Amino acid sequence: MSAEILELQASLRAFSSEREWDQFHSPKNLATALSVEAAELLEHFQWLTEDQSRSVPDDKREAIAEEIADVFLYLLQLSDKLGIDLVQAAQKKMQTNAIKYPVERAKGTSKKYSEL
Fold it and tell me: How far apart are CA 101 and CA 95, in angstroms?
């Protein structure tokens, strides 16, 4: 993993430890918190059209950035607790997706791999 991600994980560990929050940070609780934060991110796009979602105003962009950061931080904590190299897992998943969604069959369609 990159040095920046490792540093961020260490900072999250220290932040949590200083507040004695480790007792609450089970994988289940972190996954739950991640889901809640993802829903809070989604709330910013509720009722927007596709075009509106592509050009949100700066004040809303700031709030969206905070929710994205929350999702990212919980994901980092969860991967840290489970000993999963997040970057390696993402790279492996992209390789899997490339096989599931070959360009010649998936290009320009939103169909699931099982429907291609």
Answer: 10
